[in-house]
Amino acid sequence: MNEAISAFLRERIEANDFPSAVYLVAEKGEIVYQDALGYAVVEPERIEARLDTIYDLASLTKPLVTGLLAAMLIENGQMSLATRVRDLGGEFFSAVNENLEIRHLAAHDSGLSAWSSFFPVYFLPKNKQAAVLRLIVDMTQDAQLGRNVIYSDLNFILLGFCILHLSNRAIDESYSKLFEDLVASPLKLIDTQFSPPEHLKSRIAASETGNEFERQTAIEMGHLSPTKSSEVSVTKDAEIRAEDAFRKGVIWGEVHDGNSYFLGGSAGHAGLFSTAEEVFELALQFLPDHTQLLKPETCVLFRSTLAEGVNDTAGIITQLYRSFAFESATTTFSTAGDNMSPESFGHTGFTGTSLWIDPVKDRIFVLLTNRTHNHPLPFVNINLVRRKFHDLAIEALNTRKS
User: Fold this and answer.
1) Which of 276, 278, 322, 400 counts the most CB atoms within 10 A of its CB?
2) Is the backbone peptide bond immediately before 359 cis, with ω within 30 degrees of 0?
């Protein structure tokens, strides 16, 4: 452990930013600092966080699963950055915007919206995956392709379907089986998986009570009424109440993300669970000196800018830079902090997770929290915590070397 890092995170736990945190800092392929603090579960019981606590990684699934699998397909010549999605074949992909390429999905400049609940299709008796794919495909026709960077779950849900198709898997086949076969098994990962079994529940950090955040977002987007649970027609044989699409109890041991949950717990954008140490093992696959799954030259993908954009929120201009499945440290207000190499790349997860990789210094920074657990809306934006964590870790590493 590092006392300065642990003291800072303990302070943020006491401030109610999150109930628990597990961190790991590594350099040149070796773990230097790690610690576990707080409670992984506060309700319905109290369970302390440990180094082997398993967290719902949320959107870290995007780079660690979908980005990695896509890079493997590119390396094998099964697709390229410039592969047009509609050229993949099949009844669904043929209807995609004719100019949509793999690069647009991986770098978030497809123009697709950030999120959609898709809740009506989840109560279909079958073919949920096909229905979601069709909805996203239809959305691509109106998307402003290449105009700006819009970070979107839909990009990686669609990219996940592309990966399944190119891997000769059915689109309704579990994404978890592909990950297990091509990544988890070769790396001998034992705690990294989708839909963890019940016997691991006591080691898993808990999440939100119900999907209240998603429900409120759906209301704001006009997907359902805040005062009336109207009937939503899905097919002539199936009707649901919109409110029934959102869980009510403590989400613990199953994926927090609603879309991933209703797709069976695994999808291209969310659903992976893991420990800090096994996230570290996955992170090594993106570094040329350590990867076991890719050729060293393929790792250039993750540090190279593929898309640039501008975000103007309340007059605050943000420059956005995306590489293949990652955000670049050069993005304005990046959670990398102030002292990471400009070539660094990283990602965050809604549940409170983050991973940053510095390929120049050969460093990896993992911070896993469960900020959505035992906390009313709104959840705390922990980006400042992430930046401070990285700054403290880099200071500690630099001091250690001097």
Assistant:
1) 276
2) no
* Amino acid symbol at 150: I
d(CA 392, CA 154): 34
Residue 100 tokens, joined:
């949509």
The single-letter DSSP state of residue 120 is G
Residue 7 is encoded by which pair of tokens?
A: 């003291």
Distance (Å, whole) CA 135 – CA 116: 10
Taking a C-beta distance cutoff of 8 angstroms, is the pair 203, 53 a contact? yes
Q: Is it true that the peptide bond before 197 is cis, omega within 30 degrees of 0?
A: no
Cis peptide before 44 (omega within 30 of 0): yes
In order of 180, 322, 338, 351, the CA distances from 63 in angstroms are: 15, 12, 23, 16
What CA–CA distance (Å, rounded) separates 276 from 23? 7
What is the C-alpha separation between 379 and 372, in angstroms, rounded? Answer: 6
Beta carbons of 155 and 108 less than 8 angstroms apart = yes
Instruction: State residue 23 phi and psi, 5-degree precision.
Output: -125, 160
Backbone angles phi, psi at 321, to 5 degrees: -130, 125
Tens of pLDDT along 291-323?
999 999 999 999 999 999 988 777 788 899 999
CA 59/CA 252 separation, integer angstroms: 17
| CB neighbour class for 199 (10 Å; exposed up to 12, middle 13-18, buried from 19) | exposed
Q: Assess contact for 52 and 203: CB atoms under 8 A.
A: yes
Pairing of strands 30-41, 20-27: antiparallel
Structure-token pair, residue 306: 């593929």
DSSP state letter for 198: G
CB atoms within 10 A of CB 330: 16
Query: What's the mean pLDDT in 265-279?
Result: 98
Spatial neighbors of 15 by CB under 8 A, at least 6 apart, are none
Sign of dihedral through CA atoms 207, 212, 213, 214?
positive
Reported residue count of the chain is 402
pTM over 0.90: yes
How far is it, in rounded angstroms, from Cα 289 to Cα 397?
19
